[in-house]
Amino acid sequence: MDYLICAVLVLLSGLFSGLTLGLLSLDTHALKRRAKHGDADAAAVYPIRSKGNLLLATLLFGNVAVNTTLSIFLTNIATGLVAGLVATGLIVTLGEIVPQAVISRHALWFGARTLWFTKISLVLFYPVTKPIAVLLDRALGSELPAFYSHSELMDIISEHEESEHSQIDADEERILHGALQFSHRRVHEVMTAIQDVITYDWETKLTSATLEEINNHGYSRLPVYSGSPENVVGILYVKDLIVEAENVAIKDTTTAFDTDFLIVKEMTKLDTILTRMLKTRQHIAIAQNKSKQYVGIISLEDIIEEIIQHEIEDEDDV
Predict the structure, then answer these.
(1) Per mean pLDDT, which range of 30-34, 75-79, 99-103, 255-259 is the poorest?
(2) 275 near 248, Cβ under 8 Å?
(3) Where are the beta strands (DSSP E) in the chain?
(4) Which of 13, 131, 231, 277 counts the most CB atoms within 10 A of its CB?
(5) Structural domains of the chain ordered from first start
C-alpha cells in the first residue's frame, strides 16, 4: 500500500512541478490574443493563467505539500540514508526534471487537458494561497506585457519564416521587415537627387516634339521651374496633357500644370511624409535642404518600394 501511495505522490509532484513551469511560462497577453482568434485551449487556460500569483501560490503549495508527504511515506519503506537518497532521486527525476522538460514544451496543451486538476487545487488550497496571492498582487502589481524592439520583432519574424510550423512566407517577411524599417529612414536616403530629375521650364511650349519627349520619359508627374531648375514652381501632370492645346506654354495650360505642390525637408522621416501625402492626396513632393534649396523629389512609389523592399517597375521603366 505504501508503494502505491508513493507512486501516486510522485505523479502528483510531477504534475504540480510541470504545471508550475508550464502554465507560468505562458504569456497572458499572448493567450488573450490566441483566444480572441479562436484557439480553444488558450480560451480555456486564460482565465486561470490571468490569476498569476494565485496560480503560482497554489501550484507551489501543492508541490511542497506532496513532496513533504512523499518523504514521510518513504520512511515506512526505507530508513536513514537510503530513504533520503530514494526520496531525493524520485523527487528530482520523476517529480521535477522529467515533468518540467515534457510539459514546458507543450504547456498550453497540457494546461488545457489538466485544467480540472488545477481548478480542484485552487479550491482546496484557497484558504491558504489566497492571502499570499493578495499580498503579492499588492506588492508587485499586475504582470507586465512583453515588449519588443524593432530589431527583436524583425528577428522574430525571420524565425517564424524559417520555421516549418509558421505560415509566414518569404514575401511577408520582406514586407514586414520593410514596414518596421521605413519609419526610421529619411527623405534624402530614398529621394531622386536633383541631377537625376527631369524638369521643364514653365515657358516651354507643348509642341508635338515636346509631348513626344515627355511621353518617352515615362513619368506621370514632372517638376516645373521658372528661370532656374532650382526654382521649382509647380508640377506637370502628364496624363492631363491629352486635353491641352498645342503650342501652349506649360504655365498657361488649363489643368496639366498645378502650383499647389508638397514641399518636404530632406531630413524628414518617411512615415511623416507618407502621412502628409495621404492627407493631401499628393503622390510627389519636392525635397529641400536646410537652406530651402531644391535637392530632389520623392514620390509615393519611392516610399512604397521601401516598405515592400522591392522595385516597382512598369512598362516604361528601363
Answers:
(1) 75-79
(2) no
(3) 192-193, 200-201, 221-226, 228-237, 257-258, 262-265, 284-288, 294-299
(4) 13
(5) 2-140 (no CATH), 150-183 (no CATH), 186-308 (3.10.580.10)
